[in-house]
Structure formats: C-alpha cells, structure tokens
Amino acid sequence: SEFDPARSLATGTYWMPFTANRRVRKDPQSRLIVSAKGSYCHTQDGSALFDTLSGLWCTPLGHGHPRIVAALQEQAQTLDYCTGFQMTNPATVRLADRIAALAPEELDHVFFTNSGSEAVDTALKIALGYHRLRGEAGRFRMIGRERGYHGVGFGGLSVGGIVPNRKMFAAGMLNGVDHLRHTHDPAGAAFSRGQPAEGADRADDLERLVGLHDAGTIGAVIVEPVQGSTGVIVPPLGYLHRLRDICTRHGILLIFDEVITGFGRLGAPFAAQRFGVVPDMITFAKAVTNGVVPMGGVLVRHDIYETFMTGPENAIEFAHGYTYSGHPLAAAVGNAVLDIVEDEDLFTRALSLEPVLEEAVHHLDRAPGILDIRNIGLAAAIDIEPDPRAPGARGLEIFDLGLKNNLLLRCTGDTVSLAPPFISTPQELRDMVGILGRLIATVTR
Ligand code: PMP
User: What family does this chain come from, according to its entry (predicted)?
Assistant: First the structure.
C-alpha cells in the first residue's frame, strides 16, 4: 500500500528533535510540511502557514528562491563534493572572502562548519588552542551567560545557560565553566523597545568571576549579542561595550555567537556592527545559506589565525575539521544568498521593517495575560503569563491554535518569538501580530 506520512508519523519510527512527541502524534496531518514558497509553508492538510520565525531563524529570503535553486543545481552539476582537507574549491574560497568582507575589519578568516553547534565548539577550541600556542595553557576557563543558547555539542551545552539541559547531561560538561548573570530585568525594563536604557553595569559580573578565579585562568567569554532562543533578550545600552572592555583588560577572548543575529536579522550584517562592538570571534550558521543546506562557521580575528600559522612548515596547525567543512553545495548557496542580499538590499529592508514590527507587537503592551514584550531588528518576543498549574502549556496551546489560524509559530515555554522573513510586507507583519494577539487572548482568558 502507498506510504502515508501522517500515519507513519503517528505510529512509526521517526523521533522528532526537541519536541513534545506525544502531542504531535495526536494530529500528525497538521505537522507535515509538504512544500513552501516565499514566506509560507504548506501542510499536508492543505493550510498555508505564515512562517513567523523564518523556519528556525534561518530563511530570511523566503523559501524556493529561484536564484538559489539555480545556483544549487549548477554547483551540483559542476562539483558536488570535494574534501576540505588539503583541498578545497572556488565556491568555498569565494564565500569566505565575502563573509570576511561583510564582517568587522579585524575578523578576516573563516573556518566553516555544518551547524551552529559545531561553530560554537570550533570557536571554543580555537580559543583554547590560541592560548596554548601563546604559552597560556592555564587559560582553560570558559564563561557563558545565563539563558544563553549555544547549541547541543558538549562545549556549547556547557557554556549554554539553560540549566535543565545542562543537568540532563551533567556528566559530559566541560570543566571550569561559569555563567554571567542574565541581563534581563522584567520588573524595570518590561515592554521596553529595542535596548533597555538601564543595566550596562551587569557586565561587571565578569569582574566578579575574574576576582573569583584569577584572570589568567579565563580563556573566553561567549555571549549571544541578543539572546534568541530564550526569547529575544536585548542587551542593555552599553552592556556589550563594557564586556568588551573587561575582556580586553584581562586578555580574555570575546566570542559573539551570531547564529541567530548574523546575516541581517538586526538590519546590519552582524550584531557586532549594529552595536558597534568588535568581538574576537563570531560564530554564524542558519541564514548564511537561507536554511537551504546546512552550513555554519567561525569568523576569526587576524592575529588569532596567524598564531596558528607560526609553527614549523609541516605541522598540523589545528587538529579539527569536518567531512563537510566548506561543502561546495553549501558554499554555492551562500554565494547566491549574498548575491540576492546585495541586489535586493535585503539587510536594509530588514531594518526598514523594524519599526513596523515594533509598532505591531507593542500595540499588545500590557494586554491581559501578557507579561513582557521585547524587540530589536526584525525579531520580537512576547512572554505570556504561564498557567500556574502547568507552565509551558499555554505556549503549546498557542502553537496548536496557530496551525489552525495560518501561523507557524515558535513557542519556548510560554514565550512566543517572532522573526519573520525579510521579504514580508508590512501588512503581513501586522496581520501576524493581530492573529497572535487574538490567540493569546483566547488561551489566557
Ligand atoms: N547558537 C545559537 C545562538 C543558536 O541560536 C543555535 C540554534 N538555535 C545554535 C547555536 C545551534 O545551532 P545548530 O542548531 O545549527 O546546531
């Protein structure tokens, strides 16, 4: 008999990542996306869902872009794979040049990975290797931030600030990891637009850790400039500058994890430029290929790269790499993405849509059942008052209601995050928030 994906999803072998699997089984038909075009995903049961989070923060140019499809096909016909160890290919080298040209000037080398998790683990390894090569092997400590999300590798999980995730895999955590206190002040800064005015001094928490451990033992600090996965938590004005200053003063490397903020989400190529703070490394993934093929990477400061190049001629400089590092298909897509961004000026478009999204979401400020709303760039998040008996249940309910109301949503706990495609129209953004506001009212009534 013919394969029925809905039936198989309900009873078959597929283990869905990071999901309430049992819930999916109840309504499998609505969970199968069979095609997508532009800002809409089409499900097996015939709905067209507006893609409110651009996939998982990864498809800002929308789905099915003909220039991306053409680039992928052409590359597949020309060169579908080549090893990245000792060999490479023109598409990959070109993409590295172009990404470095987009980044702050000091960051001029790119190491490619296949995902954000791999990019984070790679950056942490580069930090350790850099200090060791400079005779500072004692700088083994890594510092993350509460509520930070840095993927699921053991490195990223260790520096990540989501406590239940770390606890589940406690036996595999890196040694010597600490977390900066979170920056969000729900009492003082609720419903603030863009960056909260107060709170730069929370960066001084890094001085507390330096005092506790001795600066000479700390290798790197890794932060998301805007915390994405835990609900668009925007840094207070001046906070990142202050972190930068403290790191510089103590010889600690500063890594920005820009897996979400990179490639235009904040209306600039990277958050580093939006906030005017230059880190020592930037991790990226997701939008670099518009989600079409997996790719991530690390942008590295010039002299960090050079440190690895000073040994004997035939030495292996950095014993780290992936079978698919710099995959030609991913690189071809990355180049097509940057062509489209340039030709259609899409980072500027994201910036010009920021006030539209801001007005729309803050129209819901202090509505019943809403605790906080945050926004920056083309991203926003709404905290819903949890059901005291079942935290997170309202988020799941809103997700399900979204499916019936033409919205593909992203709810983490009782927080709804929004990061629509750059190609959205102002009316689509207003409609999205209008529908969402009604769904929130329904579940919190
Ligand atoms: N870092 C950040 C900031 C992320 O948002 C994510 C994914 N949401 C990751 C790392 C991990 O990326 P991936 O899922 O591609 O491994």
Answer: Belongs to the class-III pyridoxal-phosphate-dependent aminotransferase family.
